[in-house]
Amino acid sequence: MPVLRMLSWWWYLTSQIVIGSWHVAVAAWRPRPMAASAIVEYPMRATTDFEIAMFASAITITPGTLVLGVCAGDDVEGPSVFVHSLFDSDRNSILEGLADLEWHLLHALRRHGMPKGE
């Protein structure tokens, strides 16, 4: 049911915002320097302008992450997004987190959802 998928998306996004806020607050009060950051390119499965805008907005609204740019793609390669992660220097971990965020969004937005493995 689309309403339940949308509620699940809002719950997931809210939890990511709370977790990111906690990491930023802890880092602000910690006397030691913050962990190393990283910039990654993430090839998106989102295809429409609305999906891409929602995905980029969800990344940027989550504390500790920021969209630096979006590449529209072409006939060979799809669109991709460049993301700065403040607290994670492991590129694979960042890409996995972005894939999970994107899956939750696309599962909520698309009419028939999205299989987990896609």
TrEMBL record:
Record-linked InterPro entries: Cation_antiport_E
Membrane topology qualifier: Multi-pass membrane protein
Transmembrane segments: 6-29
Keyword Membrane: yes
Signal peptide per UniProt: none
Keyword Hydrolase: no
Highest taxon above the source species: Bacteria
Swiss-Prot/TrEMBL keywords: Cell membrane, Membrane, Transmembrane, Transmembrane helix
Family named by the database record: Belongs to the CPA3 antiporters (TC 2.A.63) subunit E family.
Stated name of the protein: Na+/H+ antiporter subunit E
